[in-house]
Amino acid sequence: MKLGAEHLDDLALGSVFLATGGGGDPHVPKLLTAEVLKRTGPVDLIAPEDLPDDAFVAAIGNVGAPTVSLELLPSDDEALIALEAFEKQMGRTLDAVISFEIGGGNSLIPIMAAASRGIPVVDGDGMGRALPEAQMMTYAIRGIPSTPALACDYARNVTLFTTKGTDVYERHIRALAMSSGGMITTVEHGMTGATVKQALIPGTVSFALKLGSFLRENRGQAPALLAPLQALFADSIYGECRLIHTGKVVDKSTRIVGGFDVGNTIVEGFDAGTAPVEIDIKNEYLLARRGEQVLASVPDLIIIVDYETSEPINAERLRYGQRIAIFAIGCPEFYRKPDALNAVSPRHFGFDLDYIPLEQLPY
Amino acid sequence: MRIGIDVGGTHTDAVIMDGNTVVTSTKVLTSADVMEGVANALDTVIGNCGLPTDAIQSVMIGTTQFTNAIVERRQLAETGVFRLCLPAGRGLPPMVDWPDDIADAVGRHSYPLHGGYLYDGWPVADLDDAEIDKAIADAKGKGLKNFAIASAFSPMNAAPETLVAERIKAAIPDAHITCSQSFGRLGLMERENAAVLNATLLQFAERVVSAFLDALRTRNLTCPVFISQNDGTLMNADFVRAFPALTFASGPTNSLRGAMLLTGLEDAIVVDVGGTTSDIGVLQGGFPRESNAVIEVGGVRTNFRMPDIQAIGLGGGSLVSADGQALGPQSVGHRLTTEGLVFGGQTLTATDIVVASGHQAIGDAEAVAHLPKDMVETARQRMLTILDCGIDMMKPGAVQMPVILVGGGSVLVTGDLQAASEVHRPEHAGVANAIGAAIAQVGGESEKIISYQSLPREDAIAQLSREAEAQALSAGAAQESLRVVDIEETEVPYMGQDTMRVRVKVIGDLAIKPAGAKT
Q1: Homologous superfamily of B2-69+206-248 in CATH?
Q2: Which of A65, A314, A315, B145 is the most exposed, fewest CB within 10 Å of its CB?
Q3: Cα Rg for chain A, rounded, in angstroms?
Q4: What phi and psi, each to the nearest 5 degrees, are found at residue B444?
Q5: What CA–CA distance (Å, rounded) separates B256 from B61?
Q6: How many CA within 13 A on the CB side of residue A351?
Q7: Is B143 on the interface with A (CB under 8 A)?
Q8: Where are the domains of chain B?
Q9: B9, B466, B8, B445: which is closest to B184 by C-alpha?
């Protein structure tokens, strides 16, 4: 299909839902992408199976701190500058680009890049949601080297990374983002079409679009959306969809630990008979518990929405007194395998528990 | 004694207050030119109280005129928008996401320039004198008089905005300028939008303030005049001339503040039941709880401080289903007095239910005598449940809270509310907005991103407090009454330990001169 400016509102809304509280507000990336699409016309969204095995593909997205970038506006040519620098470094032109993560603003950056460069964007991404670190991407988990990678900042400064592993790469790009005002655009994980097919979460761009259009058309109280949302997710790579709690935020506290926004929130039930639910946060919503009972955990998706409108609420906007509903969605098959769980299980985030798939938890 | 005036879309209310006591009040229709209604309301309360005008120490006005001008795209001046953040933000011009009609009304004159700062004080780019001069020359050539200036991280370093404002003033001496730093909060696009909405209203603000002052002067009222803003604090007349946009949403705020005065409750839920909706707000420590969401005014995203108001679709004109199970959100609205059954109309409304149940004597009770008793009871209970759910969701905790009912539709509440520890129906609730305006205080606030490693927390808060106090003083506060009412600290992710976004808010009493003193 063709992705045009008219799709961006729905894509952004769906991507915030899939961002599980992280990923940053896609509003500004959306505006910028719309401006670019106005000039270039729509972009081809290519299904992974239509990608030739010998095609050359790279992942592109923004890295940084959304709070700081409230003042540092992105530019419409950053993605293109980074792409061209990457092609020059690799001595090869790119046949398509793919997203780091479908959750939040990084769902839109590849579209802007693809439009500027006149190439297709792959229908899929490296997370199926938002996650805080580069080594949690499917591409890294499949062992695809993250570098050589090229980064472009607000002032068109371009930086080349050739690091020994994704964990070191993650540290270095984080440092560059901080010295570049808080946000950079990077192109990384150069790979062939054949590799992409082994390493991506497929269909997430078109699914986010469908989800966003559903949320826009069915704006209203969260419990009324459960049945149609269940139908939507049952027919996708995600599967299970549950409404695990409705209530009011009575506490939220987060602190910076190791460069991440870490903390928790407590959500009291609307009716006095329901015990409160606690959500642990590390940029994203990671773990939902009622007392000792786990209701959902990473890598499954935990989504907080406004109770009245079902509009997803990012962790940085979550606050005391908000009336919310909590959904839990099963993660794609990719993240349920041992090699992936090594990077994204609750234990990896510092919780003393193993991943139990959502559908095996009580409901 | 103080006069409080509230200019709403439909009614203009006025009260005279002696301390915290309502001496007299009135409610008149808002006239097409606004000022006639204000004059009528003023004459009525002054006539009623029978005191000489020099007994009035101050006049406080709450008005929706500036909000309505933005919403209706009237009275807006064409405005040049100078943004200093290049080379960042290439291809993302000012007003890019505005609705077309308002972007056209303010003229789409945008001037992206080099300058601004990063979060850590590093310059985004040096200012380019030639570029600035060229932009000003272009704006001058177009005959622009109104300007909004926004630079990256101006809440931390406003020098680029100040410099460009001075250059514009030098080239266009009668320019009306708004710098975004005046709207404190972080978020360049939202702060810039706030500055543009403000700048485009500056001539209208001149006219409105002059008209208010004239109306008062011709009645021999020479006392200071204040206008209320969206956080329940006041600005003096000069401040409004410069910052009309700060009046947005002052109506609901005044209603909450008025409810506080009428009951003496500082922590309570206030339900303003109108014809179509019930607006539910929360008083915390005597002030409205603020919304954290991005606030749209006339379709434009801004960073204004606004009260957190939940509107639910139940009011006196709400339609009732034949079985009494469903009420609202559809409503006959202001046509209630012709379309409701008790007023001789054909539509079953929420007001008809409370008359049929015998709780109110409004209109012709015979017109609803035929309604089945069990249906009336179902509908009556349903109203209470709808309000209960709305109130419950706004409460800050699970415990019951006092509920204050204001507004004409409060007759709909015919029984106990489970979410309420007690229900108050204060006298004078119909003019709560004007009372809220009359008792408003003066505030100021300051916000910055600060690393506590380079500036210790104590010093940082002291510095922000001084800036907030300076702002409150310029808005008319009495120095000795100023106190810090809120310190908000939010850690900034990824930016290293102890990097915080800190906001300090101060509030104080008005510096009121003795009765009879000149402005």
Answers
A1: ATPase, nucleotide binding domain (3.30.420.40)
A2: B145
A3: 19
A4: -155, 155
A5: 15
A6: 25
A7: no
A8: 2-69+206-248, 76-200, 311-435, 441-508
A9: B445
Q: Which of B188, B292, B393 sits opposite A71 (nearest CB)?
A: B188
Q: What is the bridge-based pairing of β-strands B109-114 and B79-86?
A: parallel
Question: By the 8 A CB rule, do A251 and A233 touch?
Answer: no
Q: Which helix (H) or strand (E) holds B41?
A: helix B35-49
- CATH class of the structural domain A2-202: alpha beta
- Only one residue has tokens 């909405």, namely B197
Residue A234 to chain B, least CA–CA distance (Å): 31
Dihedral, CA of residue B168, residue B171, residue B176 and residue B181, to nearest 10: 10
A255 CB neighbour count, 10 Å cutoff: 11
**Interface predicted TM-score of the whole assembly (ipTM), two decimals:** 0.88
* Tens of each residue's pLDDT in chain B, 519 residues: 899 999 877 778 899 999 889 999 998 877 778 888 899 999 999 999 888 888 898 899 999 889 888 988 889 999 999 999 999 999 999 999 999 999 999 999 999 999 999 988 899 999 999 999 999 999 999 999 999 999 999 887 889 999 999 999 999 999 999 999 888 677 899 999 999 999 999 999 999 999 999 999 998 888 888 999 887 788 888 889 999 999 988 888 889 999 999 999 999 999 988 878 888 999 988 888 877 667 888 889 998 878 888 888 898 889 999 999 999 888 887 788 889 999 999 999 999 999 999 999 989 999 999 999 999 999 999 999 999 888 887 876 667 889 999 877 788 888 888 888 999 999 888 888 899 999 888 888 888 878 888 888 889 999 999 999 998 888 788 888 898 877 777 666 555 667 777 888 888 888 765 443 433
Q: Which residues of chain A have a CB within 8 Å of the CB of B86?
A: none
Q: Is B56 helix (H, G, I), strand (E, B) or coil?
A: coil
Do the chains contact at B495 and A182, CB–CB below 8 Å?
A: yes
CATH 1.10.10.10 fits A220-360, yes or no: no
Q: Which of B300, B308, B494 to mutate to test the interface with A (most CBs of A within 10 A)?
A: B494
Chain B residues in contact with A27 (beta carbon < 8 A): 97, 301
- Domain B76-200 is found in CATH 1.10.10: no
Q: Are B509 and B442 in contact (CB under 8 A)?
A: yes
CA distances from residue A301 to A23, A131, A190, A326, B459 in whole angstroms, order as listed: 13, 10, 28, 10, 42
* CA B324, B327, B330, B335 torsion-angle sign: positive
Taking every pair of Cα atoms in chain A, the longest distance, rounded to a whole number of angstroms, is 64
Residue B85 to residue A73, Cβ atoms within 8 A: yes
CA quadruple A39, A41, A47, A51: dihedral sign: negative
Judge contact between B187 and B155, C-beta under 8 A. no
C-beta neighbour count of A129 within 10 angstroms:
33
User: In the structure encoding, which two tokens stand for residue A147, read together?
Assistant: 């570098």
Phi then psi dihedrals of residue B482, to 5 deg: -65, 135
One-character DSSP codes across B279-296: EEEEEETTEEPBP-SPEE
Count of all residues that appear for chain A in the document: 363
Distance CA B430, CA A280 (A): 46
Nearest alpha carbon to residue B309 among B285, B278, B334, B286 = B278
Using DSSP's 3-state secondary structure scheme, residue A181 falls into coil
Residue of A nearest to B98 (CA): A31
Selecting from B92, B188, B308 the residue whose C-beta is nearest the C-beta of A32 gives B92
Are B133 and B167 in contact by the 8 Å Cβ rule? The answer is yes
CA atoms within 13 Å, Cβ hemisphere of B196: 33
Q: How far apart are CA A80 and CA A4, in angstroms?
A: 18
Of B118, B392, B496, the CB nearest to A270: B392
CB contact under 8 A, B119 and A320: no
Chain A residues in contact with B452 (beta carbon < 8 A): none
Domain boundaries, chain A: 2-202, 220-360
